[in-house]
Design brief:
heterodimer, A: mainly alpha, B: mainly alpha, 0% strand
Amino acid sequence: MNQDKVTINRSVSEIPDRKMAIIAESLYLLNLLIIPGLAFFILIWLFAKYDNATTMISGCHLRQAFSASIWAGLLLVLVTWVMLSTMNHDSPYTWMIVIPYFVICHSVLVLLGIMGLAKALAGKKFHYPIIGPSS
Amino acid sequence: MLYSSQRIAKPYFIAAITLFTIQVLFGLSMGMQYVEISIPLISFDTARLIHISLLIIWILFGFMGAIHYIIPEESERELYYPKQAIQLFWIFLSLVIVTFFAYLLLPYATLAKITGNQFFPTMGREYLEQPTIIKLGIFAILCAFTYNMTMTVLHGRKTVINLLLLTGIAGSTIVFIFAFYNSSNLVIAKYYKWWLIHFWLEGTWELIMEAILAYIIFKITGDREIVEKWLYVMVAVTLTTSILGIGHHYYWIGMPEYWQWIGTIFSIFEMLPFFFMVLFVFNVVNCTKCRSSNRALKLWALSTPIMAFLGAGVLGFLHTLAPVNYYSHGTQITSAHGHLAFYSTYVMIVLTMISYAMPLLRNTVTDKIGQRFEILAFWIMTISMFCMALFTVIAGIMQVYIQRTTDINLPFIEIQNSMNILYWLREISGIIFMFGVIIYIISFFVAEIKKT
């Protein structure tokens, strides 16, 4: 039992480039939670610099986090902006749609990011449903 | 199951599920009254009183059951006073039944008078409506329970999980002392009321929740080391954020303005424990091999942190920011947060524990039919509660808009009438939730008991 545990822990920490996967997923979350924009620019820089030079695990997380960040921006900023610019601001119904949409959408994106980070910590691949590239 | 005294958990769990069902029924009766269908003999204020009180009490029963189950196993010994544990159960249940019928049959003012509230006034505050004598009884039960658990742990093995449970129950007992302080100054009274309510819900109970979740994840994966490492992180984050997070209860009640800053900043950080809970559960599950064949248990255990992140974390964060709370305070948004946060944190963790322990206590571990019913009940309850919270949030946004951001001076009741459709949708979600509860109860009866 203990031997198994040690083997699993050691094998997780020995996965090459696991750090890059963790950084990519953390930047995705930071972009959504604390430093929107700035974290995304760092992610773009990482993607441009390391996309071809990374191993399977980190490359997968980098591509997934980059793509998911773009989709998150579109879903949270663009769609909300379209809704607000086409709907009447003086109607409560506008806010009854926009606020729940934004909150649910943002929460789901954050939850997906946490799951991505958990996979990165475990040294495993992760695919964002719908918003992540298939390959 | 390794120790015979773990069996004491069973009556606690049965009582918890029974009281949970009654609580939901009273919630439904209130929802009916929102859409103007009167319920004979039960007034709205009585139903609300019972709905809220039962919520606290049944979760307490659930926690006590869980702790009675976990402590002997973690301490590697029988309970210090097994007889006392079962006696406490019957005393506690008797107090609950007496209080329940007193609420139902007597006007609150009469109850206050006959229980001598005029000599030692502690009644009349939300969540702390119990007569003083009942509060004394609850305090005595908590003290005896803490003593029994402390002695068990002191004489047995000490682990992070059982020490954390001990911290949780001892903390809950200590802060219950504030239930007995009721200043004639309303601001001071409210100030200390939150020392109990906030530190239970966002402090000591959260610690108990984390310990139970860690125990379950340990049982599913078998990796104590990684579970304990994460547990340290979660506890540290919980304690550093929740203590000053109490500030969000001090807005607009007469407290100094700096509480708005403290409350806002620490309420933002109060999301972190739930963030780490999701990360913890999924990280441990990804890193280790699953040992449990109980699919229902895995579903409850993996969903609890996700739902807690949404209900307690996101919804809590949203309206505990002082500038938002200025508008949303005391509206349906508070109710939505209350419902989803309670369900996603405490209801789900108690049901997770029941899902783990009951098959072992009833010898139905290998049963598949009961698990299928339980999984169905999980989805019905979780989705309907999510819908209930969503409709209530939407009603709350409408309420804030009409009542607090425009110059339209409509009477309160007219604003409520304009949200009738949302109250109907909420009530329908509540009825579906009740179906979920019924299917959950059925899952115990269809489960095949393995003969030994």
